Automatic annotation (TrEMBL):
Pfam families: AhpC-TSA (PF00578). PROSITE patterns: THIOREDOXIN_2. Signal peptide: none annotated. This is Thioredoxin family protein. It comes from the Bacteria. Transmembrane segments: none annotated. Residues 8-160 form the Thioredoxin domain. InterPro entries: AhpC/TSA, PRX-like1, Thioredoxin-like_sf, Thioredoxin_domain. It comes from Albidovulum marisflavi.
Length: 183
């Protein structure tokens, strides 16, 4: 069943965190944030919504990093119930796909709860002051990737944030698999 997060709460301050990355380093929000802002993505290995657009996520992350936006992905799924989302498998995916950003493990799920993450993928775009400016979708993709010429909504929004400090007022919520909470 597909889940959509709530709309953007403009100005909401990014909660800080420190999480282990697949690169062997611990990362805080301060470490991730770029001079123009930060993009925090909740993703996972097994979700068909993420898998269908992973190449686009990687493309947009690279381009946003070049614009001064820091990027990180967080996996908060219960790896006991979903072994594809284990830390070892996260590391394998980050290595095989050449992630240019930290892929972080939220084993306690505390960070996902602090962000009120709802689904994978769930995108949180912050300006340089750490204020939420985008909580929308990557593009028109769902379980299947949209056409290659689909409007790059996340990229365009975060480019605007990099240039002006503010995100677009019109945003379409992301859609994906629910976060797999521990029971």
């Amino acid at each position: 069943m597909a889940v959509s997060p709530p709309v953007c709460n403009f100005g909401w301050k990014a909660p800080d965190f420190t999480l282990p990355g697949t690169d062997g380093r611990n990362w805080s929000l301060k470490d991730i944030a770029g001079p123009k802002g930060a993009l925090i993505m909740f993703i996972c290995n097994h979700c068909p919504y993420v898998r269908s657009v992973l190449d686009r996520i990687l493309r947009d992350a690279r381009e946003l990093q070049s614009l001064g936006i820091g990027v990180a992905a967080i996996c908060a799924n219960d790896a006991t119930a979903y072994p594809d989302d284990s830390f070892a498998n996260m590391r394998a995916l980050a290595d095989s796909e050449g992630f240019t950003f930290p892929y972080l493990h939220d084993e306690t799920q505390d960070v996902a709860r602090a962000y009120d993450a709802a689904c994978t993928p769930d995108f949180f775009g912050f300006n340089a002051a750490g204020e939420l400016q985008y909580r929308g979708r990557l593009d028109a993709s769902g379980r299947q990737a949209a056409s290659p010429d689909a409007r790059r909504e996340l990229f365009e929004a975060m480019k605007l944030v990099a240039e002006t400090g503010e995100g677009p007022r019109e945003q379409v919520a992301s859609m994906g698999c629910s976060i797999k909470w521990r029971t």
